[in-house]
Amino acid sequence: MQEEYGRAGAAGVAEMEAPASGGKGVHRAPFWSDISIPLRSGRHDEVVLRPVMVETGQHVLGVGYAPAAAGRAVESRRLPDVFGGVVRHRPVRPDFHVVGVITGGAGRHAVDFRPDDLAAGTVFWLRPGQVHQVLDADRLHGTAILFTPDVLAPGHRVAAFADDPVRPSRWAMDPRDPLVTTALRHLELVLAAPSCARDIADALRLALTPLVAAAPGVASDNGPVSAVFARFAAAVEAEFPRRHRVGDYERAVHAGTKTIDRSVRRARGISAKRYLDERLALEARRRLATTDVTVAALARELGFSEATNFVKFYRRMTGTTPASARQ
Predict the structure, then answer these.
(1) CATH number at residue 76
(2) Residue that terminates a domain, selected from 214, 241, 257
(3) What is residue 92's DSSP assignment?
(4) Distance CA 67, CA 162 (A)
(5) Residue 97 lies in a domain
(6) DSSP-derived 3-state class of residue 136
């Protein structure tokens, strides 16, 4: 049964009902693609194409990219159509970029468990791995651009912005800006025509350039302190499951602990240790919300020698327990 969330194809969540005895499952393919959930063994080359039941009895939804046209790495969709189907009001974790430009109406969604209002002039950028939940989107109007992480060639500021996890995920701009509207329309026309991959990538970069130009900066300056923070943030993103101390990052950042701490405080207003702990806790919340991983397995994946130590850490950071996070 085709749901609203992708009636036109593009990426979608595939939902498999539990098969009757000896029968085959019923495949549902709305907008987001096949569910891709690592098995409990921890092997990431195995996936299941059905919802997994967690302790609360809720379906688990992972999100992969599956374009309507084979080999098409970019999709342009209308809001609110993109926010329907089986993922409506349920947390999902896409493995691709979703950039939304709101041109009218009002709504609400949550990114990494933080609710946020959407209105005309809002630009939001969901990066691969972030948890997204639609709260209210029926009255929204605008455009959503979806694309895989590898479609933007490195060396351009749009690609650098897309790859930087500490860049803003929401900002405001004039949705009637002719540069924005023309670039978005150009992308739609290129996608509607039999275009080559290079033309599509160029049109995507053109559409994203005025949006990125309107985004606020990461820090208050572009000096050495900001450079240290950028290196620290990138190193944390790559190593946080294995390295839980700020001192573990000195070699990768090429700076001492005190310098790292100063740079994080200037860029984020918190200590470097707090920044590191918040990233670790966020990953735990993401995994608990979108997979059936056990607490013990998650503790191991995130570098905790004992599950009890992980539970204590999670309670300190979130005020609740991993088990209650799924209720």
Answers:
(1) 2.60.120.280
(2) 214
(3) B
(4) 20
(5) yes
(6) strand
Domain boundaries, position 242 = 231-317
Asked if the structure places residue 226 within a domain, the reply is: no
Q: Smallest Cα–Cα separation from 28: which of 71, 84, 111?
A: 84
CA distance 115 to 108: 7
Residues 207 and 248 in one domain: no
Q: Which of 214, 245, 278 is the last residue of a domain?
A: 214
**49: CB partners within 8 A, 6+ apart:** 14, 16, 34, 35
Angle, CA 220 vertex, CA 214 and CA 221 arms, to 5° = 100
**What 3-state class would DSSP assign to 93?**
strand
Task: Round to whole Å and give the CA distance between 178 and 56.
Answer: 48
Residue 123 main-chain phi, psi, to 5 deg: -115, 130
Radius of gyration of the chain measured on its C-alpha atoms: 20
Spatial separation of the C-alpha atoms in residues 71 and 86, rounded to whole Å: 25
SS (H, E, C) 104-127: ECEEEEEECCEEEEEECCEEEEEC
> Per the domain annotation, does 63 fall within a domain?
yes
- In tens digits, the chain (327 residues) has pLDDT values of 233 333 333 344 433 333 333 343 333 333 343 333 332 333 332 222 233 333 333 443 555 555 555 557 899 999 888 876 656 678 888 899 999 999 999 999 999 999 999 999 999 999 999 999 989 888 999 999 999 999 998 888 899 899 888 888 999 999 899 999 999 999 999 999 988 889 999 999 999 999 999 998 744 445 555 889 989 999 999 999 999 999 999 999 999 999 999 999 998 999 999 999 999 999 999 999 888 899 999 999 999 999 999 999 999 999 999 988 876
CA distance 47 to 118: 34
| Claim to verify: residue 204 and residue 272 sit in the same structural domain | no
Q: How many domains does the chain have?
A: 2
Tokens of 206: 């053109």
Question: Which tokens is 304 given?
Answer: 């905790």
| Three-class secondary structure of residue 147 per DSSP | strand
Residue 66 lies in a domain: yes
Strands 93-94 and 62-63: parallel
